[in-house]
Fold each of these.
Amino acid sequence: MKGILTLVGLAALAAGLLFVGQGLGYVRWPASSFMINELVWVYYGGTIAVAGLIMIAFAQR
């Protein structure tokens, strides 16, 4: 269970950081993404990344 929660947390962290990067316009992949330069995705991505960090921290306890 610990390993699965860590993997899910890492996936959520990676996805959240991707969302933040696209929302800020730093990550322009894929080029046709509707998330590029849209500030709302920074907030969604930040929330997902924090949730991933919480899962990782919980799994390590």
Amino acid sequence: MRYNIKYKCRIVQFLIARAMALLHSTGEMAVGDRSNGVSIIGSEFHGKVLGTTQVGSLHAIRPQTSGRA
């Protein structure tokens, strides 16, 4: 099965943002903290918590992600 590289990149960026949200919710990551991830094939992704916000009644982070698959 072939996957679009751009699509895979978006999935990984989503997963990094999700991980940062979980770390922020447990107090392990604060606003301004950075997260770096490297895969076994050498792809690098970087994330940063820009701030917090609220979506309806839920607390959320404003993530910034970058990298290439």
